[in-house]
Amino acid sequence: MSTRLETFQNIINGQGEGYLTAAWKHFVGEEYDRARFVKAHVDFVQQWDWDWVKINPRANYYAETWGASYDPTNYDIMVPTLVEAAITKPSDLSKIVPLKAQDNPILREEIARAREIKQAFPDRAVIQSVFSPLGVLLFLADIHPFPPGPGREANGPVSLTDLLDTDRALTLKALEAITETLKDYVIELLKPVEEGGAGLDGIFYAVLGLPSKSFIPKDKFDQLSTPFDLGVLEAAKGSAVVFHTCSMDSHPDWFTQWPLSALQWDQFLDGNPDITTDLGVIPVGGPEARLFEEGQDLDLLQEQLARTLEQRQGKPFLLASSCSLPLHTSDEALEILSKA
Predict the structure, then answer these.
(1) What letter would DSSP give residue 284?
(2) Residue 317 CA, distance from chain mean position
(3) How many beta carbons lie within 10 A of that of residue 123, not counting itself?
(4) For the domain that residue 17 is a member of, what is the CATH number?
(5) What is the spatial distance between Cα 56 and Cα 179, in angstroms, rounded to a whole number?
(6) What residues make up the domain containing 179?
(7) Is residue 134 a contact partner of residue 210, using CB atoms and an 8 Å limit?
(8) Distances, alpha carbon 300 to alpha carbons 2, 173, 340, in Å
């Protein structure tokens, strides 16, 4: 009988007709202490018996890698309150230099956490979240890498235009430095434990909301994201790459020719295709993430789940909520998904 890890590998290779289920969320209050962070993930996976594991670190750790500081005792929803950004003016781009993952305390800590979580689930695929270099650059300047919206404005200490266009050569140099760092980080995540790595099975690669609603127009995305994304993905060659493009109008069709194993987009948001759309890649999808919050419509969740299973019948896919779960999830909703 196949292990869940072997089944996962078969699915992402387009073999068979089954599915495996997972869910992930942020564990606010547990993110800065290694033991508590690892325990929160392990307990969550064990409680609901998820078939594969997506590690969900704090979103700001990349900014901390290059010197940004936050108040871990004071969160603004899912991200701690910023104390000082790594980039506050365009000339600060010159400070963004390549780093070795095992020499950097932030990245070294994330590798250690990932190793411990993988050791708890040797029979399942465990993958780590990795943000795109352009997304990381925006975090360094405290610019949210999503289209502006209510309660989520793209206003950091430096504007998006100034960050990307004041000195294009300096911007490209910073992106190259971030790319080299992330490539080394990915290599360490995937390296066997006996060689000092985390021993993971792949990565969950997120371009965040950069393609959404032309937040970063396609021509600029092709210049400032694509070549650097492909550089990071090259470091994951031979391992699983679950790829995520977020928010509305997220253009999953931009990425179908990239070296990825599975592709997730939120099929319930405006401008996004349905999960039945044949993009030539294994989809990751399921009920709307918002329906897992306490007090939501469980009947609708069950309807969406049943429809997803019917639409993908006979075709391999990965079952999960349409995006990361809300902070305050309903046990009843999680039970419905876990028993699918």
Answers:
(1) E
(2) 18
(3) 10
(4) 3.20.20.210
(5) 20
(6) 4-338
(7) yes
(8) 33, 48, 15
In this model, does residue 148 exceed pLDDT 70? Answer: no
3-state secondary structure of 131: strand
Enter the pTM of the model: 0.96
CB distance 259 to 241 below 8 Å: yes
Give dist(CA 63, CA 69) in Å, integer: 8
SS3 call for 202: strand
**Residue 332 pLDDT more than 60?**
yes
The closest of 160, 163, 141, 157 to 86, measured between CA atoms, is 141
DSSP summary character for residue 325: P
Question: What CA–CA distance (Å, rounded) separates 209 from 255?
Answer: 14
Position 88, amino acid: T
331 Cβ contact list (under 8 Å, min separation 6): none
pLDDT digits (tens, 9 = 90+) for 287-296: 999 999 999 9
Give how many domains the chain has, as a whole number: 1
